[in-house]
Design a protein that fits this description.
It is a single chain. This protein is α/β, with parallel strands linked by helices and 669 residues long. The chain folds into five domains: 113 residues, 3-Layer(aba) Sandwich (Rossmann fold), CATH 3.40.50; 89 residues, PrpR receptor domain-like (Rossmann fold, 3-Layer(aba) Sandwich); 92 residues, 2-Layer Sandwich (Beta-Lactamase), CATH 3.30.450; 180 residues, P-loop containing nucleotide triphosphate hydrolases (Rossmann fold, 3-Layer(aba) Sandwich), CATH 3.40.50; 107 residues, no CATH class. Helices cover 49% and strands 17% of the residues. It has 29 helices and 22 strands. The strands form six sheets. The chain has a five-stranded antiparallel beta sheet. The chain has a five-stranded parallel beta sheet with strand order 15-18-21-14-22. Strands 2-1-3-4 form a four-stranded parallel beta sheet, sandwiched between helices. Strand 5, helix 6 and strand 6 form a beta-alpha-beta unit.
Length: 669
């Protein structure tokens, strides 16, 4: 026994030294364990602690009950303590009054038998009193007859009950008390012998459980703090509720978005604001997703999703997003991810010419660009309708946003619907996996140009009308409409009014499109612009065709008769084609015979013969009639046009659809 006491004293002195060192050099990365005892248990804890200093930090608290709670709360609030190790009624009290886990040093049957053995060996024949926490051992009572020991038991739940238990056992003749440290202390005060109940093995087991639990708690706490830090910096509002609807967590953004008063009862305000969403999710067992709600005078996008753990619903999480922020993000994404081909390249200044008809187009286009009104461009094929549409877009407040062009005559009816309005995954056989946004969605905040609108199938005209009226599109296979902010510019070479009268085109769609109509003149009605336009186009492509300055002038001189007398049924597109052909064949072919050139340029042959041919003028060097079949103007027509124009030859030639050279020749003849 003496050797045991000496060995224990030596281990305790080493333990205290090591334990104090670990407190003096804390490692914040290790979990913290508080060792709470007001009696002899502390000595065993200080003996065991050095073995675990590499795994945890230990804090010694020599207080009990309320005083221990007060001392520990500072450690808990600072995040230093993750687990508390205690025993008996003191541990039970701490477990009920602290927010961190409390590990109890448990007494097992071997500890009790070992203590009884020590008592009977040291004090043979003495009556023994056993003091246990909460309940006595009925199994031990049944074995007392076999143990040939005079053993009496008492249970306690508080320090006062320990004192009463020891006093009662002493009154019954017990000379030795086995129990926790407090019972041993009271026994010594009463002049009785005592045996400490807790063994080193029980304390070691408690340390193992405490250190492991502290490690897991620290990991969970680190994850919780990390998650809370992330959520706290989110612009979206986030709030978590338990299954009873009580608030578990909420970030500052949620309070700001809902306009809650932080000086008042925040959980009550939050529950009032989002309570209907929680009830709806609970009653229908379905999440609420991307719903627009007016809360606190603001348009918010709200989601309410149930939290399911191991197949059991344990609460809900509500997220709130400012609708205006979502719109800005949407615009930014559409702008940054917009394909290069969705950019309008042309401006209204790219319209070349100074004729009155073209100036009228520019004036109307600028007026239309100043507003978001739907524009209808009409005119023959090749008159530059898409160029004007791009110019209107670039002159409007929507410049910089998408410009999407679509030819309504380019695809079959089924594909047109999918292209314009989009489709969900599985909407039809061959539908793109994941679905596809339509051109109206792609053009959001920008302009969509619907060319050849007169060719749109009748079945799709009603869908287009709905988009124009409601400003929303519904994908194929979807049951939800998507709002769009799109400016529509339509174009056609056909007479839509006549199509309406024939029942081919919807009247209501026509009137919706025909808000601001701009008619583009054919090239033959602005002959004064043809030469300037030809030079502009040829200069732009001179590098492509390797044209020198002299070759460029030679091409223009060769084509001059066409500029003045050809009808240009293909308009600007035909002019570009002709210029490209001339640049290729005439750059080094100035000496070629007319017979060869006539095969390359049949346009000369299409000019109506005039009286000038009789006088020997070559076909490519004189004025001709109109290839469209119109009657060539006579001298009487010229005189009448001059009279109506007040002698203005330029105005008279425009009225007759001829060049001023032809006008002068007719006057001379």
């Amino acid at each position: 026994m003496k050797r045991f006491v000496e060995r224990f004293s030596h281990e305790r002195s080493v333990a205290v030294s090591t334990f104090t060192s670990s407190l003096a050099n804390p490692n914040s990365g290790r979990p913290g364990v508080a060792l709470v005892s007001i009696s002899r248990l502390q000595s065993l804890c200080e003996t065991v602690a050095p073995r675990y200093t590499g795994q945890a930090r230990f804090f010694s608290v020599r207080e009990g009950y309320g005083a221990a709670v007060t001392a520990l709360q500072a450690y808990v609030d600072a995040g230093s303590v993750d687990v508390v190790l205690a025993a008996g009624s003191n541990g039970a009290y701490l477990r009920d009054n602290l927010s961190v886990p409390v590990v109890m040093v448990k007494v097992n049957g071997f500890d009790v038998l070992s203590a009884i053995t020590r008592a009977t060996t040291t004090w043979p024949g003495a009556k023994i009193g056993l003091v246990l926490h909460e309940t006595i051992s009925h199994e031990l009572a049944d074995l007392s007859a076999w143990l040939t020991v005079g053993l009496k038991q008492r249970a306690y739940r508080s320090i006062d009950e320990v004192r009463l238990a020891v006093a009662g056992l002493a009154a019954e003749g017990c000379k030795v008390i086995i129990g926790p440290g407090m019972a041993c202390d009271f026994a010594q005060q009463a002049g009785l012998e005592s045996v400490f109940l807790y063994s080193l093995g029980a304390v070691e087991e408690a340390f193992e459980r405490s250190v492991e639990l502290a490690r897991v708690s620290r990991q969970k706490e680190s994850k919780r703090v990390r998650l809370n830090t992330i959520v706290a910096h989110l612009r979206d509002g986030v709030a978590a509720f338990d299954d009873a609807g009580q608030v578990e967590a909420v970030n500052p953004a949620m309070l700001d978005l809902l306009g809650l008063d932080r000086e008042q009862d925040v959980p009550a305000q939050l529950t009032r604001a989002v309570g209907p969403l929680l009830r709806e999710t609970l009653e229908h067992d379905m999440p609420v997703e991307e719903r627009i709600e007016q809360i606190g005078g603001r348009a918010l996008i709200v989601n309410c999703v149930p939290i399911v753990e191991q197949g059991v619903r344990s609460g809900s999480v509500v997220t709130v997003q400012d609708a205006l922020v979502a719109q800005r993000i949407d615009r930014s994404l559409r702008t940054s991810q917009r394909p290069k081909h969705l950019v309008a390249r042309h401006h209204l200044d790219d319209l070349v010419g100074h004729s009155m008809a073209l100036e009228r187009v520019r004036r109307l286009a600028r007026a239309g660009a100043a507003h978001d009104a739907t524009v209808l461009l009409s005119g023959e094929s090749g008159t530059g309708k898409e160029l004007v549409a791009q110019g209107i877009h670039n002159a409007s407040r929507r410049r910089g946003n998408p410009f999407v062009a679509f030819n309504c005559a380019a695809l079959p009816e089924g594909l047109i619907e999918s292209e314009l309005f989009g489709h969900e995954e599985g909407a039809f056989t061959g539908a793109r996996r994941g679905g596809k946004p339509g051109l109206f969605e792609i053009a959001h905040t920008g302009t969509i140009f619907l060319d050849e609108i007169g060719e749109m199938p009748a079945a799709l005209q009603s869908r287009l009308l709905r988009v124009l009226q409601e400003r929303e599109v519904m994908k194929l296979g979807s049951g939800r409409a998507t709002p769009v902010d799109v400016r529509v510019i339509a174009a056609t070479h056909r007479d839509l009014h006549a199509l309406v009268e024939q029942g081919v085109f919807r009247a209501d769609l026509y009137f919706r499109l025909n808000l601001l109509q701009i008619e583009l003149p054919p090239l033959r009605e602005r002959r004064g612009d043809v030469a300037q336009l030809a030079r502009h186009l040829l200069n732009r492509s001179a590098l492509q065709y390797g044209l020198s300055g002299a070759a460029l002038e030679r091409v223009l001189a060769f084509l001059t008769p066409l500029f003045e007398h050809y009808a240009w049924p293909g308009n600007v597109r035909e002019l570009e084609n002709l210029l490209a052909r001339a640049a290729i064949y005439l750059s080094d072919s100035a000496g070629e015979g007319w017979q060869d050139l006539q095969a390359v340029f049949p346009e000369f042959g299409r000019m109506r013969q005039t009286a000038a041919d009789v006088h020997g003028v070559t076909p490519h060097a004189h004025a001709a009639g109109d290839a469209s079949g119109r009657r060539s103007p006579t001298r009487e027509d010229v005189a009448r046009a001059l009279k109506q124009a007040g002698g203005n030859r330029a105005a008279a030639s425009r009225a007759l659809g001829i060049g001023r050279t032809t006008l002068w020749r007719l006057m001379r003849d």
